[in-house]
Amino acid sequence: MGVLGKISLFTVFFSSFLIIPPVIPFNACSGIAWGAEIKSFGTDGQNGQSGQPGQNSQNADNMTIFSDGSPLTLNLAGRDGQSGQNGSNGETANCGNQPVNVRYNVQAPDGGNGGNGGNGGDGGNGGSLTIYATDPAYLRQIYVNAAGGKAGQPGQGGMGGQGCLCENPYWTIETCTGKPGDPDYRCTTAEFRCQNGRNGTNGLNGVAGREGLVGKLTLINLDKPLETDEPAATVTMATLKDKGYILSRNIWETRTGARALLASGSIIDDQYLALVERLERSFILVWNAPQSFQNFADQKISISLENNQGIKVDLPQDLWIEGTTQQQKNFTQFIVYNAMRSQDATQLESQGLLGNRRDLKLTLVDKANQSNLIATKFKISYRTTQSDPRFRPVSDYTTKYEGEIPEDLISLDGNKFTINVGQLPINDRDLRSGLGVEIKLVGTRSFAGYTAEQTITVREVLGPFK
Fold first, then answer.
1. Where is the composition biased (Low complexity) (predicted)?
2. Cross-strand pairs, 188
3. Tell me, what's the pLDDT at 19?
4. I need a labelling partner for 274 at 20 to 30 A (CA). Which of 149, 226, 405, 457 fits?
């Protein structure tokens, strides 16, 4: 280590007065400047090496057994964590020889710092045990050691090495100018010092590892492997109709007293998990709809087992179904009475206007032919213009009527709607031949709780009555 930052106050004496140089605070990066040159001697001791940390131990393997009452001893203990290594000691400084009667200050060498101790490794967790046993008395024949491994001990920090002490802490040197007896003859005396070396600092002790966790018990009152949960599924309608589907859920309960169930002296977490019940519920799709099932066979339905043990049905957004769910003890039926795709609700198409004045009618055709299932209501906006709106955009429309169309002005014949526009409260002059009109219909179509809207716009010039 260098000498900067190690020298305290020094003084320089002259024959007629005392000079005290300024003391500059310690700065480990830039050092300090003495009033005279500073040189070090000897060699600083090397720092000690830090100890290696102890390795963490692996967790013990988990185990599953089927108990028939036979005595059994199981070692599921986690292994202990390894201890951290000690840090090595710092080396003692090599002092060498202190320079004598020199015209500069000197710094003795420092001892090396001790290395830090390594941290201890973590102990491994004890293995968890799953026991299938149909008789609780069988458990008394099973001794289990599922203790967690002990924590690894920390390494100790190394001792710091000794620094060197100055043999001669200070000395003076006289300097004269001129000849004795001459008026300009002057002598001055300067003092120089030696700074002792610093002892190395002791290394830090490591930190102990973590104790391993004790293993846990899971108890299953069955004599065959427990099947996994399947509380939800997404399945095609064809599968649900032809085969049905079984949803399941295992019901668990956290209890205390695991050690009392096992052989005396067993080491295991006292809280354990016990299977209370396995729920299995069947689901089937019953197709009582007049529509062909083949048009819907590939559609997928999501089903899920709820907390009340019933089955919830989630249909895709593009599928409109009229149906009902019938829940029995372990069996659920989903009965479909009618079905359609959502896009079939918005397949209305204008067939144009017919007549004028009070006999003006607008005809629509349902291209999906679903109007026998769907309830339909219409709103209308009736606007007129002096221009011909059929071939170019028109900006001078004037609204003559807006509102819902009464049901008695709408007739349905198969898939054909006829709307008696001329019977709406519109002035005769706004229904005359040769007048440009824009009719905007908004159809609201509803089926089994589903709703969709479709907007149809017709632009024509009213002609003579046909």
1. 46-59
2. 175
3. 32
4. 149
